[in-house]
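Problem statement: downstream parser choked on a complex file, so we are re-checking the raw output for the iron/sulfur cluster run. The parser issue turned out to be on our end (a line-ending mismatch), but while we're here, posting the original submission so the record is complete.
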Amino acid sequence: MRPPYWNPQIELSQAEQSIISKIKKAKLFIFLRHNRHHLFDEEFQAELTIMFKDSTVGYCPVSPAQLALALILQAYTGVSDDEVIEALVMDRRWQLVLDCHDCQKPPFSKGTLVNFRQAMIEFGVDHRLIERTVEIAKERGGFGSSNLRAALDSSPLWGAARVEDTYNLLGHALRKAVRLMAQACEQTIAEIAQETQIDNVVTETSLKAALDLNWDDPTERSYALEVILSALNNIESHVEKKTANQQLSPVVETLQVARQIQSQDVTIDSQGQPILNKGVAKHRRISIEDSQMRHGRKSRSQRFNGYKRHVLRDLDMGIVRAVGITAANVPESEVTEAIDSDLKAQNVKMVELHIDRAYLPSHWVKQRSQDLTIFCKAWPVRNGDRFTKTDFVLDWEHSLIRCPNNVTIPFEQGKTVHFPASECHVCPIYERCTTSARGRSISIHPDEAFMQELRQRQDTESGRAKLRERSQVEHTLAHLGQWQGDRARYLGARKNLFDLRRVAVIHNLHVIARMSPPAFSQQVS
Ligand code: SF4
C-alpha cells in the first residue's frame, strides 16, 4: 500500500504552544515543529515515496517524512532504536515534532524504523537529506550563486568494534565460528568443541585465559599460535564434512576471516614454527566484528583505530555540502571523488577549495581547471641556516634553475637536480649553501609550479588571510562531533557515513535557523 502523504498541521495548537514554552534546551525540536512541512514539502515527500517504491521492501507503511524526522532526532538526542520508540510515547518533544500527541501506541515500530534506515542506506537516499537542507539554506539565505567556495577537513572517528591483538582475534574468530556452528547444527558449543577437539581454545571467554601460557616467552607464544592454527584446521575439516547443511555459510565466512588474519599476521619460520610477522600488513584487519576499521594516525605520535570523517563546508553559507568516511589508514586525498559525486547533484561549480596538505594529492588538485583556486599551506622548505630552495630561481620558460652564485642548470619536475661539484667547490658562498662534498642538490616537486604559487600566496597578507578561512571547517567538525561523538555508532563505513550525513543535516538545520527570517527564527542549541 502506498504510504500516506504526511500533512501535519502548520499552525500551533494551544497544547503545542504550552510544550514549546517548556523547552529550554534542545531547541531543534521547536525549529523542526515550525519547519517540518517546509523541510518535507509535497515534492520531497513524493520523491522519497518514489525512491522507496523501487526498493525490494516495497512501499514503506509509514510516511517516509515521519521516519526520516525520527532518524534526525535520534542523531540529535543520541538515543538507541528502542529509545526512539519509547520517546514516541513518553516524550512530548518527540510527539510535538512527529505529530503524535498523547499517543498510547507509537506511530511506527522499531522494525519499521530499522528497515527504513537500511533502505535509505541501500538506495543511497541519505545524501538527499543534506541536499534538501542546502536547498532550504539557499532560499532562506538568499544565496543564488552557483559558485562554491568550500573548505575540506577530516577528524578521527574511533571504530565501534573491539580491537584485539592477533592471538585474541584468532581466538574470537574461533569462538564465533563454533557458536554459529552450534546454532546451525542445533548442538551445544561444548558438543561442537568436543567433536572438533578444540575445548582447550573455546571454552573460556578469553583465549589467553584458556591457554594460560607465559606470553613473554617467544617459544610459548609460538606454541599458542600452533594450538590456534590446529584448532582452525579442525573446525574447517568439520565444516567440510557437513556440506549438506545450508546454514553453515556464516561459519565459513568467519573461518575465512580467521584465515585472513593468519595470512596478514602469521608466518612460518625456517623450523616450521608459526611466528608473528614483524611490522604491520598494509590493510591489517584489527577487529572481527568490523571488517573495515583500520589503524590510523592523527599525527606521527598519535594513533587511533577506526575511520576518518571528512566534511566539506560551504564558506559562504556555513552549511555542510557533503561528507565522506574512509578507513583510518586511507590517505585523505582518496575521499574527494566520492564527495565530488555527491556535489554533482547540487549543480555547483567549485571556484575555491581550502584544504590542508593531506588533500594535495586529491583529484581536485591534480585535475584542477583554471577556474579553481586551491588554498593550502605549501610544504615547508628547510635547510638550517643555509640557502633554502626558495633562494634558487626557476626559469619556467627554459626549464632552468639558477643558484645564488648564478650557476644555471636544467631541471625537470619530479626529479632532483644536482649542481656540479666542480662549481660548488670553488663557489665563494659554498659554506652558506651546502655541506655536501658532491655539491648542492635540489628536489623539484612533480607540481613545482603549483607549490611556488602556494608559497607566493602565503607570503602576502591577503594570502594568509585566505588561508585562515580553512579554520571554519575545523569548527564545523567540532560541531558535528558534539552529536556524533568521537566513537562510531555503527559497524562498517557505509552505516557510519549515513550517521555522519544525518549529523550534517542537524548542523545545517542550526545554520538555517540562524539565517531564517524572524517569523521562522527559533534559536536552536
Ligand atoms: S654551492 Fe653550488 S649551488 Fe650553492 S651557490 Fe654555490 S655554486 Fe650554487
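For whoever reads this later: Residues 403-405, 407, 419, 423-424, 427, 429-430, 433-434, 439-440 surround iron/sulfur cluster (CB under 6 Å).
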